[in-house]
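Open question from group meeting: does this chain pack into something compact, or does most of it stay loose? Before anyone orders reagents, we agreed to write out a predicted structure and look at it together. Recording both the input and the output here so the notebook holds the full record.
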Amino acid sequence: MRLKRLKKTGMFIFAAASEQGADIDYEAAREVVYKMPHSEWKEKHQLPATDEQLEKLAARQGK
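Structure tokens returned:
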């Protein structure tokens, strides 16, 4: 899945930068990956959860 790869890439950039002593936080690393703040990317590209997805989430959370 593309989203999982993007998330892993953001974590990799954050970890690699931290190891090199660069002053970068996770949100800044995600902005490198998404080419915009993650909140803006989600607003533009993330689809609303389906009823099925919401039901599965509620089941996992014990609701």
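Observations to bring back to the group:
The domain at 2-60 is CATH 1.10.3340.10 (SMc04008-like fold).
The chain is about 70% helix and 0% strand.
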